[in-house]
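does this look right to u?? cytidine-5'-monophosphate version
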Amino acid sequence: MRTLKPTTNNHQLAAPAGRPLPKERIIVALDVDTLDQARYLLDSLGDSISFYKIGLQLYTSLGQAIIKELQDRNKRIFLDLKFHDIPNTVASVCRVVSSLGVDLCNVHALGGAAMMCAAADAVKECDTQVLAVTILTSHTPEDIKDELHITLGLEQEVLALAGLAADSGLHGVVCSPREIEAVRTCCGEAFLIVTPGVRPAWAATNDQKRIMAPSEAIRRGADYLVIGRPITAAADPRAAAIRVIEEVE
Ligand code: C5P
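got this back:
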């Protein structure tokens, strides 16, 4: 079990033993368009949630204002923009991200070892940690074979890319709950595993296909769980968050 490095911006959220509390292992996906919508969720969730994911939708809409909003509230931030470009460009953007005081960001592992090494090198003196996205969960085994001409099977490809990310010096991966144990075995205890596709039994599955209960994902070795709609679309987001936290506990 890994913990994130403590950040320099007063986000010292690790439990005394160095292990995050269950509520610190839930990352809520702020998949909304406006500052008002984000503030509604932040106000509702209050101190029940300390970690948020900002994706392309909200970052494109608000830019750094949403990072400042979260930092003003002493929240940790996963900036999920999935960089994929030449090594120099990705290294440069990782330096910018780390200067913003973001805790986690990510790159596509398909950008290759040189790109991931450049990203790891760019943040080595900083508190920001970089995760790799292996194969998007929206791809099917047929897609990757017939369209992308990837000849390894899907699971083998995910593991190969996770291993490449670890060898390149990245801090962890974003992967589906089904891949947790194989990635843990392949990449070791020190590798961060962050998983979306998590659904409590009482929540709608929405468009997620390969789901797992939060407690099961933690049991299998996930460090952090990304959860969106079961919390953000609930009539009472705070009650839903507390229910998820209790399940993890
Ligand atoms: O609402 P829901 O819990 O499905 O949200 C999951 C979040 O995790 C979304 O922001 C989604 O984009 C993200 N995600 C995912 N599957 C991946 C990678 C990221 O669902 N493989």
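The longest helix spans residues 154-167. idk if thats expected tbh
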